[in-house]
Amino acid sequence: MQLFTAPVQLGADSFALDPAIRDRVLLPLTLIVILSGVLRHVLTLLVATPPKPQPLLAVREQRAITRGQLLRFNSSHLPPSSFLALRSSLSQAYVNGSFLKAPPPKPSADGVPPNPFEDPAQMEQMMEGLQDMMKKQAVGFVPQMATMYLVNRFFTGALIARIPFPLPLKFKDLLQRGVQLLPSPSSAAPFVADASWCSTSSWYFLCMFGIGPVYQLLLGNNSSAADPSALAPPPPTMPGAPAQDMTKIFRAERENLDIVEYEWVCEGVEERLLERFGRA
């Protein structure tokens, strides 16, 4: 289906396009790109595996670090006695390992560490992560291939828009890919278009990689699945990968609590109030 008609030459480097290109090419192409992103977002939500609830001890271990951080950030809003009591309690718990969900694994008698691939829990977690990653990649790949097929099948060979600022000629191959201009009526030489004109293929890639804010407006902040330029999800954790050493993390948080520069915001508040309103 050829949608590009012979240009009407106006000057050395300008021409007029058929007004129907806006309604038959530009707007449908843009709408297809937007709807393909919305489709990827919906399919990703349908095939996503809901997160499993974590054990109570694991949640307590994670929240223990948050408690120390909140105490450091909001220390000035606590009275001295409350701050000292909370800091002493948390520091003692960090040292004793009271918040650890489980003691560190002990090495075997022969000194050989246990094989992580023999742990059914870790193998199940890895397989679930691989399946979830493959489903997300398939959901993002299939709609994108279908959209590219529609663009190449029905929207090729047309100049549909013009960048509102001049561009050097080195951008011509980038923005006018897939377009072969016809010879001008007065000359057998091909018509030379300005580099700021944009073809359908280039417009498709510009929309695909620059339409993220539109998805955020339509779908909210959780629109990374619709945007193909977003970062890919991290791969699942392989068995045997080093996990977080919560003992070291607790020790570091205890050191951060010890060096907090505490200053109570209500210290000398009576004098400050009298200085500010006493004269009135």
UniProtKB/TrEMBL annotation:
Cross-referenced SMART domains: DUF106
Protein name (Swiss-Prot/TrEMBL): ER membrane protein complex subunit 3
Family: Belongs to the EMC3 family.
InterPro entries: EMC3, EMC3/TMCO1
Pfam families: EMC3_TMCO1 (PF01956)
Record membrane topology: Multi-pass membrane protein
PANTHER family in UniProt: ER MEMBRANE PROTEIN COMPLEX SUBUNIT 3
GO terms under cellular component: EMC complex
Cell compartment(s), UniProt: Membrane
Keyword list, A-Z: Membrane, Transmembrane, Transmembrane helix
